[in-house]
Amino acid sequence: MIPQRYSGPPTSGNGGWVSGILAMHTPLPTVASAVTARLQQPPPLERELVLDEGRTPGEATTLLDGDTVVATAVAAPPLREEVPDPVSTAVAREAESRGVRAQDHPFPTCYGCGPANPDGLQIRSGAVDPAGADSRYAATWTPRDASLPEVWAALDCPGGKAAGFPSPPMVLGTMTAQLFTPPVVGEEHVVVSWPRGADGRKRYAGSALFTADGQLLARAEQTWITIGRERAEG
């Protein structure tokens, strides 16, 4: 059951957090493997679901709502695309001043970035360079726990911001993530994200989690799907 506090849009689960739950139960052929999660339906909140775990490396883990497949996750090759350089915590905090304002946020209770979710991560990614010469976005994050769902959630919304959220509104379609080292609870970290192109309704982005001194802890690549304003408000 996905509790209401882990929502993304108001009536469905946060894509990164839900994907992280699946990743936690997905068998990996090697410790260096990544996991690809695909959301096929909006994950319902406060309803009993079935998590069908993969049993051998390469076998998918599936989240089911009755007979309906909500999401799947499967081991993937390590991500190879170069990660942009990190930024300092000071630069990240300054970028947060250009994050999405509460009045402009279509999902204000989102677990990852919603300003109106007191239990959420409240990661407020903003452009590193307001003039646009630098395509990176950045924010700080101080973990309350170092679980895989929390890390996936922290990598999720910053990618959406780099992909163009909230104009237009969009939801996570697929996410491939790789964790190298867990973050340290109670210490300030930096999340950097960047755009990776677009194709019709699809927007592509990457994100990475760093320590304050620039050590890469985790990374992700996402496909985002743009949605209509009516669905965003629903």
Model description:
Helix content is 17%, strand content 31%. It has helices spanning 15-24, 89-96, 148-163, 229-233; strands at 34-39, 50-52, 61-65, 68-76, 126-127, 137-141, 170-179, 189-199, 202-211, 216-226. The two termini are 20 Å apart.
Alpha-beta content class: alpha+beta
Element order: H for helix, E for strand: HEEEEHEEHEEEEH
Question: In percent terms, what proportion of residues is strand?
Answer: 25-35%
Q: Uncertain segments of ≥5 residues (pLDDT<50)?
A: 230-234
Q: Give the mean pLDDT.
A: 95
Overall number of strands: 10
- Rg from C-alpha positions? 16 Å
First-residue to last-residue Cα separation:
20 Å
- C-alpha geometry: globular
Topology:
Elements: H1 15-24, E1 34-39, E2 50-52, E3 61-65, E4 68-76, H2 89-96, E5 126-127, E6 137-141, H3 148-163, E7 170-179, E8 189-199, E9 202-211, E10 216-226, H4 229-233
Antiparallel strand pairs: 1-4, 1-7, 2-3, 3-4, 5-6, 6-8, 7-10, 8-9, 9-10
